[in-house]
Q: What sequence folds into this?
C-alpha cells in the first residue's frame, strides 16, 4: 500500500521560507521511473502544480514559481522536501504531495492528506 | 492562473447524466498530452478518477467515463448518485515558450439535486 504524508509548519510569516516534508511508504525513490510531486490549493480555489523530483534526481518546477522553489530527496529516509522562499499571504494554501504515475505526463496517484499553511504576520 | 477551463458548476437529479468539459489549447491538450480527472470530496484530498483520457483506476465505478477530442476533454457521470457530489478537476501537461509543466483545470462543483 502506497501512502504519503505531508508535514511542516502551519503558520509562517511573510518573507519567511517555508520547508515542507513529504514522508512516503510503499515505494522507493531509487526505483527507475518513480517520482514525487507537490501540488497546492488555496482555500476555495483550484489546484496548482508546484514541483516534481524523479528517482534520478531530475527536477521539474512550475515556470511561474521556479525562482522560489527547491525540491530535494532523501532516498534513505523515504522523504522529499520542498522549500519555498519569500512567502506571501497569497501562498496560503493546503499543500499536497503525490506520486506521479509511471506514464509520460501521467496523473498523480495517490495523494497525501495535505497540510494547511497560513501566511500571516 | 489555470490554463484549463472548466464550468464552475453542473447539477443533476439522481440517476441523470452530467458532463464536465475541460477546454485547453494547442500547447496542452491539443498538443496530444493526456488528460486526467480527479474527484475531490469535501475536506479531502483529490483522488484520481480517470487517467490517460479514458482509463479508470481499479475501484472507480464505470459510471465515470472520460473522452478527449482536439483541444478539449470531457468527464461524464451517468446514473448520478448523491455520493458523487464533489469538486472535479482535469489535469494535463503544458509545453510552451514560457516553460513546461503540469496544469490543472479551474474545477467544477457537481451538485446532486
A:
Amino acid at each position: 500500500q502506497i501512502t504519503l504524508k505531508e508535514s511542516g509548519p502551519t503558520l509562517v510569516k511573510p518573507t519567511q521560507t517555508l520547508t515542507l516534508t513529504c514522508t512516503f511508504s510503499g515505494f522507493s525513490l531509487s526505483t527507475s521511473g518513480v517520482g514525487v510531486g507537490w501540488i497546492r490549493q488555496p482555500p476555495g480555489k483550484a489546484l496548482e502544480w508546484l514541483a516534481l523530483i524523479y528517482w534520478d534526481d531530475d527536477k521539474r518546477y512550475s515556470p511561474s514559481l521556479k525562482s522560489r522553489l527547491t525540491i530535494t530527496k532523501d532516498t534513505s529516509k523515504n522523504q522529499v522536501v520542498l522549500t519555498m522562499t519569500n512567502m506571501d499571504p497569497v501562498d496560503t494554501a493546503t499543500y499536497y504531495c503525490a506520486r506521479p504515475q509511471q506514464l509520460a505526463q501521467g496523473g498523480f496517484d495517490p495523494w497525501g492528506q495535505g497540510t494547511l499553511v497560513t501566511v500571516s504576520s | 492562473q489555470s490554463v484549463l477551463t472548466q464550468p464552475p458548476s453542473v447539477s443533476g437529479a439522481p440517476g441523470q447524466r452530467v458532463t464536465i468539459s475541460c477546454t485547453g489549447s494547442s500547447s496542452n491538450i491539443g498538443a496530444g498530452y493526456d488528460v486526467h480527472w480527479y474527484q475531490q470530496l469535501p475536506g479531502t484530498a483529490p483522488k484520481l478518477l480517470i487517467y490517460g483520457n479514458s482509463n479508470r483506476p481499479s475501484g472507480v465505478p464505470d459510471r465515470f467515463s472520460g473522452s478527449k477530442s482536439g483541444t478539449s476533454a470531457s468527464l461524464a457521470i451517468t446514473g448520478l448518485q448523491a455520493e458523487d457530489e464533489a469538486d472535479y478537476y482535469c489535469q494535463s501537461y503544458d509545453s510552451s515558450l514560457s516553460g513546461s509543466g503540469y496544469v490543472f483545470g479551474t474545477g467544477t462543483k457537481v451538485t446532486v439535486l
Chain B touches chain A at residues 1-2, 33-34, 36, 38, 44-48, 51-52, 57, 89, 91-93, 98-107 (CB under 8 Å).
